[in-house]
Amino acid sequence: MSKHNTMNETHEQTGIELVKAGHSLQFEGISGYTLIKCEKSAKGEDKTITVPALSMTYQAHVAAAVCGCKVDDIYSLPAADFTRVCLEVQNFLLNSEK
Fold first, then answer.
1. Domain of life here (predicted)?
2. Domain ranges (residues) in the chain
3. N or C: fewer beta carbons within 10 Å in the chain?
């Protein structure tokens, strides 16, 4: 989370607020257990997933876990932000460079 001090008030932005502001996701706080849990949830939602790292559903679940929000918060992002977030997760999962 990020702290912003405006007029002597400190406001900590949530993960989803940071995403909406265009910040990158911070993957340091998740583990393999988190990724497996996200995969199970995504496959429960979309039974056609064969390669999770390429599934936007799975990517959205991982992004939600990273942000500490509900997957519906990720789904409700504007299309450009949703696509950016999914691509960032995919790059992380596949360990590829931008």
1. Viruses
2. 15-94
3. C
